[in-house]
Amino acid sequence: MLGGHDMNYPNGKKKIAPHQNTTQLNHNYSNRGMTLEADINATNAYYLDTDKAIIHKKPTPVQIVKVNYPKRSAAVITEGYFKQASTTDYNGIYRNKYIDFEAKETKNKTSFPLANIHDHQIEHMHSVVNHGGICFLMIRFTVYNETYYIQAEKIFSYWENKLDGGRKSIPYHLIKQDGYLIPLQYQARVDYLKVIDKLYF
Amino acid sequence: MLGGHDMNYPNGKKKIAPHQNTTQLNHNYSNRGMTLEADINATNAYYLDTDKAIIHKKPTPVQIVKVNYPKRSAAVITEGYFKQASTTDYNGIYRNKYIDFEAKETKNKTSFPLANIHDHQIEHMHSVVNHGGICFLMIRFTVYNETYYIQAEKIFSYWENKLDGGRKSIPYHLIKQDGYLIPLQYQARVDYLKVIDKLYF
After folding, report:
1. pLDDT (tens digit, 9 = 90+) per residue, B55-69?
2. How many CB atoms lie within 10 A of CB A198?
3. Shortest CA gap A178–chain B (Å)
4. CB A134 within 8 A of CB A98
5. CA B103 to chain centre
6. Of these four, A21, A74, A89, B112, which has the most CB atoms within 10 Å of its CB?
7. B129 in reach of chain A (CB within 8 A)
8. Contact, B96 vs A129, CB < 8 A?
9. What does the pLDDT read at residue A16?
10. Distance from CA of B54 to the nearest CA of A (A)
11. In the predicted model, what is the mean pLDDT of residues B175-188?
12. Residues of A with CB below 8 A from B86's CB?
């Protein structure tokens, strides 16, 4: 899940009137404000429309506890809880390859805290790599409005290091060095397939 | 989503005490009663444990409308609705290949009603095939307790036919002919990777 605990879901979507939404979109594109999740969804929609790749965000996992079935209208979930995801948020297919990634935003200026990723997700990413999939992490530093593509393999070494009592975060300068900056664009806003093309094809 | 509108989610899980659950499991394995979804989840868990494949069910898509954030306890979704899935329910990776499928149960004895599948899902399955993924439908005839693997490509021709004013269902005898019976087993209860091995490797 994006943003971890400081998720503002679902309020963001509900309280914006249609024309405000448009305004916000233009404003955001110009520089900042659009969430990474929104950017990725727009990018995936563009990939889908242009038949470039089929990559979707998995629905937010919800544990459904109570459901009402009113007569003549849709079932209403009246009690549910957010569950922790055991995999990554995005997956799909591109150029015959299985694609799998997680996206995270941080307000931090100097490093990416590894607490944003869970054990299960790292385990999942390991398996994906072992089975021949393309796996990565997309990290956005909101303060700089910079988005980086970091191969899962690089994350593993920071994770190992953390488990061995080392740093609990990845320094920004190492992300700049080991990762690939994804430029913000108009159509495919975070065109991560370009990085994949360079790295794997 | 499995079972379409006659989904008994989430009651099934909640009302069974642990030892009843075990009893039910044994009973079911012997012949019938376990849902296809439960069988697939168990199979995928087995594949994951044995590092054979990484295939997961996507969470049920829920449109979250209201969330309460009580102090000192977890956020509670107090209003939510089931959304129609735009893709299939299961995907992942096996032997370097992208795997994607949908699973459906029917109580029908003579045919599988195509109304169980949505336009969006067919579109998605088409894209998956075009991008080099392995895509199929798993259909269980609950009356016979038989589960079939049917390649997406076969489904497309029935779908086209339906759009051209033809049959709105796939006759059982043609599913027997065009599909592959997945035997019910103990460990990997519906061992669909065996069919994939035969067809693609």
Report:
1. 999 999 999 999 999
2. 10
3. 25
4. yes
5. 2
6. B112
7. no
8. no
9. 35
10. 7
11. 94
12. 56
Q: Is the peptide bond before A61 cis (omega within 30 degrees of 0)?
A: no
Contact A91, A55 (CB under 8 A): yes
pLDDT digits (tens, 9 = 90+) for B1-38: 444 443 333 333 333 333 333 333 344 444 455 899 99
- Taking the CA of residue A117 and the nearest CA in chain B, the distance in Å comes to 19
Rounded CA gap, A138 and A40, in Å? Answer: 10
Inform me whether the C-beta atom of residue B53 falls under 8 Å from chain A C-beta atoms.
Answer: yes
Give the type of residue at B67: V
Supply the DSSP string of chain B, one letter for each residue. -TTGGG--TTHHHHT--HHHHHHHHHHHHHSS-S-HHHHHHHHHHHHHHTTS-EEEEPPPPEEEEEEE--TTS--EEEEEEE---SS-SEEEEETTEEEEEEEEEE--SSEEEGGGS-HHHHHHHHHHHHTT-EEEEEEEETTTTEEEEEEHHHHHHHHHHHHTT--SEEEHHHHHHHSEE--B-SSSTB-HHHHHHHHH-
**Mean pLDDT of the region A74-87:** 94
Instruction: Please name the residue that has the structure tokens 């150029």.
Output: A95
What number is the ipTM of this complex? 0.82
Q: How many CB atoms lie within 10 A of CB B198?
A: 10
Mean pLDDT value across chain A: 87
Residue A135 DSSP one-character state: E
Six token digits for residue B68: 């309460």
Assigned token pair, B138: 């798993």
> Which residues 80-119 of chain A have a CB within 8 Å of chain B?
80-83, 86-87, 91-98, 100
Rg of chain B taking only CA atoms, in angstroms: 18
Nearest to A44 by CA among A34, A36, A55, A58: A55
